[in-house]
Amino acid sequence: MTLPEYTKDGIKWTDLPKTFQEAILLARKLDIYYIWIDSLCIVQDSVADWAQQSAQMADMFSNAYLTIAASAAKNGQEGLLNRHKLSTVNIEHNSKAYTLSFRGIERHEMREQDSTPFPEKTELTLRGRAWCFQEELLSRRIVHFTKDEIVFVCREATMCECTARWLPRFKLPPIIGTSHRTPNAIWGSVVEHYTRRQISFYRDRLPALSSLTRLFETSQDKYLAGLWKSHMPTSLLWWTERGSRPELHEGSQSNPPSWSWASITGGVHDPTAKPQALCDIEEVAEMLNAHVYPTTDDPRGMVSGGHITLRAPLLPLDRMWQKYRERKDPPYCIFGKELPGLYNNGSLHVSCGPGWDQGHQWTEDDICSCLLDDTAKLSSSLLEDGSDILLFFLVIRTAYPWRNYQSVNGRLELQGLLLKPFEAPEGVHQEAVEAPEHKLVFVRVGMGVMELCKKDAEKALERFGDTILTVF
Fold first, then answer.
1. Quick check: 231 and 270 in contact, CB under 8 A?
2. Total structural domains in the chain?
3. Quick one: 162 and 237 in the same domain?
4. Are residues 274 and 352 in the same domain?
5. What share of the chain is helix, strand, coil (3-state, %, to 5)?
């Protein structure tokens, strides 16, 4: 509803979309006298009202008696009861004619969808939208109107029309306080599930998750454009398979820093979401400072920029070369976990060698394998002949892929970020790009893993370990 519409007296019933009408009728049938619909209760052409109200959605949905979801509707005119028509068959019994209505056996998308690899393909339109994610997670009870059936979901279970049994709730991250998992692991799962979904406007990538962040807030922690300071620096090791970084336009209100997953489009893997098959993990990067610049009154919403300052080993890298894995090569491993389907979908990983001690006899195994944040844009510029782009590897932590790996192979795994020198684009918040005194300023372009002989790795970490730098 726009501001002129908001200030007039009442709304004609016939002016309401079909979905709104049917939701109101359903509420009346349940003796519920109040209903909240975001596009009616939030002024749609007011940035200030939208920022204020969207930040309060957690209270709306967590305290609501029931959430009504038109899960299969593509727009507000399709209504709730837009299911496929049932098939019928005529039979005769005891000389009487009967007509039986039935439907075919359908896949239970409500329970299967969130366990599928992303990008997921689903016919449940509503459940593919990023804005609806926190609504599903926070609601006490939801009634989904799908194309095949009505599905009831509460915090514990799911019930559909085709069975009298209660089924486990469809796979969404558990609400904090209802799980034995740590808050950072739950948040990692939230990020992975949320970023699978579609969002119409890039600027909404952070606001659409704003309400949910309030459940994770503590007085000792700080929320930074989709990441929590207490989870850093490990949480900086997110990666994407098919991401892209939108072009920044002058005057844009949304410009998340490159170290935030909100700076790209596409699904994200979070290193804190699941236990990792690694041994002797040691963080070698130290967070010194972190700041973001909100563009609205909501500190968890859009940001115009931000930076982090770290003390960490910063290793120079040698010229890159391209490695497409279009044939049946061994699966790519990252954080001790195989990603067998990674290269079948056209993803690109680039490799580079150590850029220090040029006289050293490096082996072909001494490489840094990196997944780029923006494959299409960055790979072409990095790999073209005569490219003068400088690349660095910021080591976040070290680990061994499996126990006894050191004694068997004598090698150490370094995990970190792929960086390039920072150039301030036009239209960015000026405070967000002011270089610190040390002048070492970079942007993130990817995430990678580098494996070296343990002796060589320790020498490099000692030599470059006290570097202080800022990443925008």
1. no
2. 2
3. no
4. yes
5. 25, 30, 45
Whether residues 115 and 237 share a domain: the answer is no
**69 CB-near residues (< 8 Å, 6+ apart):** 126, 132, 135, 136, 142, 143, 144, 145
- pLDDT of the residue at 104: 66
AA letter at 144 = H
Q: Can you tell me the distance from the alpha carbon of 384 to that of 404, in angstroms, rounded to the nearest whole number? A: 41
Task: Specify burial of residue 316 (Cβ count, 10 A radius: 0-12, 13-18, 19+).
Answer: middle
333 sits in the region (left: phi over 0; alpha: psi -120 to 50; else beta) called beta
C-alpha 329/C-alpha 323 separation (Å) is: 11
Reported as a single tens digit per residue, the pLDDT across 179-216 is 667 788 889 989 998 998 888 888 889 988 888 888 88
Sign for the pseudo-dihedral over CA of 91, 93, 97, 102: negative
Per the structure block, which two tokens stand in for 292?
């973001």
Structural domain range at position 139: 3-168
- Looking up tokens 């894995």 gives 325
Query: Among all chains, which residue has been given the structure tokens 């939030």?
Result: 42
- Judgement on whether residues 230 and 108 belong to the same structural domain of the protein: no
The residue among 321, 370, 324 whose CA lies nearest residue 347 is 324
Alpha carbon 304 to chain centroid distance?
Answer: 19
CA distance 412 to 466: 19
pLDDT one-digit tens code per residue, 407-425: 566 788 899 999 999 876 5
pTM, whole model, 2 decimals? Answer: 0.80
252 shares a domain with 161: no
What are the backbone dihedrals phi and psi of residue 194, each rounded to the nearest 5 degrees, phi first?
-65, -45
Q: Is residue 179 part of a domain?
A: no
Q: How many CB atoms lie within 10 A of CB 100?
A: 10
